[in-house]
Amino acid sequence: MADDGDDARALDAENEALGVALAALHTAVWGYGVVGAALESGARGIVSAAETAHRDVRDEVIALLTERDAEVPAAEGAYALPFPVLSAVDAAALAVVLEEGATTAWVRVLDQAAERGTRELALQALTDAEVRAVAWRSAAGQAPVTRALPGL
């Protein structure tokens, strides 16, 4: 039988992993601004939907961590881009990087999750990020467009 110390350590590990996921969400929300700026106006709907999805999950994680009196990592003012975004293909490739960053963070949450609700949140967020990544890989001309084990 687990004692309260074990439960507290498990929740601390879960909160730390959620903090890492929150940082990835902050990055994605910021990064989708760059992605949208590099695309024609007709293609911005998918960017807006992706940004909104990350914002919604970000807000859910912030609320969860706040409720637990855990550390809530703040967003940075700006983030370094991994490469120049000079075309629509570059924008799609950046979106892939953003989604893969999210999937990696959510895999960590799944590994550290102590509560069922957190596992459910992580699994849904990981799945959604990978679905978006598949579309962006296709738009960026990357192959294969799917990953056998997203986030790993």
User: What is the molecular shape?
Assistant: elongated
Low-confidence segments: none
Helix/strand-derived category reads mainly alpha
What helical percentage do the residues reach? over 70%
Q: In whole angstroms, how far apart are the ends?
A: 31 Å
Describe the structure.
It contains four helices and no strands. With 152 residues, it is mainly α. Helix 1 packs antiparallel against helix 2. The two termini are 31 Å apart. The mean pLDDT is 96.
Secondary-structure topology with pairs:
Blueprint: H1 4-37, H2 44-67, H3 88-112, H4 116-139
Helix pairs in contact: 1-2, 1-3, 3-4
Features:
elongated, 70% helix, mainly alpha, single chain, 152 residues
Structure summary:
The protein contains 4 helices and no strands. It has helices at residues 4-37, 44-67, 88-112, 116-139. The radius of gyration is 16 Å and the shape is elongated.
